[in-house]
Amino acid sequence: EIAEHDEDISVWTGDQKAATKVRDIEKADYGTLHQDYSESVDALQRAIAVLKSQAHDRKQAVSLVQVSALKDLALIPESAKRTLDAFLQQDPEGLEVSAPEAEGYEFQSHGVIE
């Protein structure tokens, strides 16, 4: 009878060691996975903060500075430069249009930050 008990104790000790080894492996896997998830959540929180800080539309440039800058490029032919000069010297009142003012960029990430 003692031999049977010794055998049971031996089996239980082996089972305990195997279970401890499995738990150690699972704990290491959990630690790695938890760190990965934590870093991902932190990165998402920082990205959302950046999006919230930039959650506005950008206005269109109100002047023709970009068009007038074309006159200085060497690749633009002289005839085109003269045409640009004539265009830029026109009365700005005549260049107004009745269409609504468009945004230069409309913020489209509201769904992400809500």
Query: How much beta, percentage-wise?
Result: under 5%
Number of strands: 2
Strand order of the largest sheet: 1-2
Share of helix, binned: 55-70%
pLDDT < 50 runs, ≥5 residues:
none
Distance between the termini: 70 Å
Supply the helix-strand structural class: mainly alpha
* Secondary-structure element order, N to C: HEHHEH
Which term fits the overall shape?
rod-shaped
Mean pLDDT: 81
Compute the number of helices: 4
Characterize the largest beta sheet: strand count, sense, and whether it forms a barrel. 2 strands, antiparallel
Q: Work out the radius of gyration.
A: 36 Å
Key terms:
4 helices, 114 residues, two-stranded antiparallel ribbon, mainly alpha
Describe the structure.
This protein is mainly alpha-helical and 114 residues long. It is built from four helices and two strands. The protein has helices at residues 2-53, 65-69, 78-88, 110-113, and strands at 58-59, 103-105. A two-stranded antiparallel ribbon has the order 1-2. It is rod-shaped and about 115 Å long. The two termini are 70 Å apart. The model has no long low-confidence stretch (mean pLDDT 81).
List the helices and strands and how they pair.
Elements: H1 2-53, E1 58-59, H2 65-69, H3 78-88, E2 103-105, H4 110-113
Antiparallel strand pairs: 1-2
